[in-house]
Amino acid sequence: MILEMKVPSPGESITEVEIAEWLVSDGDYVEKDQAIAEVDSDKATLELPAEESGTITLKAEEGDAVAVGDVVCLIDTSAKKPEGGAPAKTVEKAAPKEEQKEAAKAQVPEKVASYATGSPSPAAKKILDEKDIAPTSVNGTGRDGRITKEDAINAVPSMGTPTGGSRGETRTKLSMLRRKVAERLVAAKNETAMLTTFNEVDMSPIFELRKQYKETFKEKHGVGLGFMSFFTKAVVRALEMYPAVNSMIDGKEMLSYDFCDISIAVSGPKGLMVPVIRNAENLTFRGIEAEVKRLAIRAREGEITVDEMTGGTFTITNGGVFGSMLSTPIINPPQSAILGMHNIVERPIAKEGAVVIAPIMYVALSYDHRIIDGKESVGFLVAVKEALENPTELLMDNAVKKALEL
């Protein structure tokens, strides 16, 4: 029986996918549920499992865009599994290919270089010297590659310093995911009135809390006490204070939310992924850290689903993990704002009339000015700063151990 394998639908809004990589070869024997291909949608990379066991015939090439429901391969379920588990075609063809390569090598005679190979004639050498051109940079057309007078006359001096290094280039097709990310970023720049406001945060209080409680926190909960839980908590508090930032434009209407679904930007093997922490307003520090870890692992292992990356109301991106000091993050549409975290550097600042050294992070809020005014945007970022600089009172209600569930 010949089974037609069709492209399943990864999500409601996805109509086509791209064959990123075949994990099997044409004619291989595959087992049921074995991953046979990786397919890219405009939101994620997913594995395509074999629906039955049998011999596979591929009907699409790597890089092909195929519509949802199209046939991408056939599986002959009546085929028997080859002994030893190796595909019969591999065993039969391996030896002849090696023999052909050896025979081809034996038939190609080695080129014997003569004394004149690549050297200029006396007349050609004089012309090249006058032009200050090295003979090694000229391809000779004479016998055995000898540089003739005509070659020297036609030789053009190199524009720039010759280095002798490689000047090759590689052209690689962008994945569907990368193309979609590019389209969305350009659309965000062209279709929104994007503006960015900046501030700085003294991270000393958070450093002190982490230094005091991170080991106990990890021992009890199995996850680290990172910066993301503090920032998420601070963002949730600020969104509740400034609901316009937790809104988006829908046609001629402003759509506001009474929940906080926080998207977190994660760098995955296939590009930028933005999984969502659902109802972050209901999560504890432990809950946020556990969810961040779970989503980050799934994104980096290519297991993230479309549903896990859809529907965020606000985004946090952390360029600081790559060493970024300051940036203007681009809004993740249809959201109206995004918070950019950056690296933490010890800087001199003024405290109570004295100059002290403190761990400082610059933060940036990019927002859509069509829906968020300067008062809301600046007030929002100041609220985030206040919460991060006074976490014990504003994020933990002066009960640190209770907030950390210790």
User: H/E series, N to C?
Assistant: EEEEEEEEHHHHEHHEEEEEEHEEEEHHH
In this structure, how is the largest beta sheet organized? 7 strands, mixed
Stated plainly, the CATH topology of the largest domain is called Chloramphenicol Acetyltransferase
Kindly report the average pLDDT value. Answer: 84
Structural class: alpha+beta
What is the top-level CATH class of the largest domain?
Alpha Beta
Describe the structure.
The chain is of the alpha+beta class. It folds into three domains: 2-85, RNA polymerase II/Efflux pump adaptor protein, barrel-sandwich hybrid domain (OB fold (Dihydrolipoamide Acetyltransferase, E2P), Beta Barrel), CATH 2.40.50.100; 122-154, Dihydrolipoamide Transferase, CATH 4.10.320; 176-403, Chloramphenicol Acetyltransferase (2-Layer Sandwich), CATH 3.30.559.10. The chain has ten helices and 19 strands. It has helices spanning 88-107, 122-131, 149-154, 176-191, 204-221, 227-241, 285-300, 374-389, 391-394, 400-403; strands at residues 2-6, 16-22, 29-30, 35-40, 45-49, 54-58, 65-67, 71-76, 194-202, 247-250, 253-256, 262-264, 266-268, 271-273, 276-277, 314-318, 337-341, 344-351, 354-368. Strands 9, 12, 15, 16, 17, 18 and 19 form a seven-stranded mixed beta sheet that branches. Helix 6 (227-241) crosses helix 7. The longest helix has 20 residues, at 88-107. The radius of gyration is 31 Å and the shape is extended. The two termini are 60 Å apart. Mean pLDDT is 84; it is low at 86-95 and 106-116.
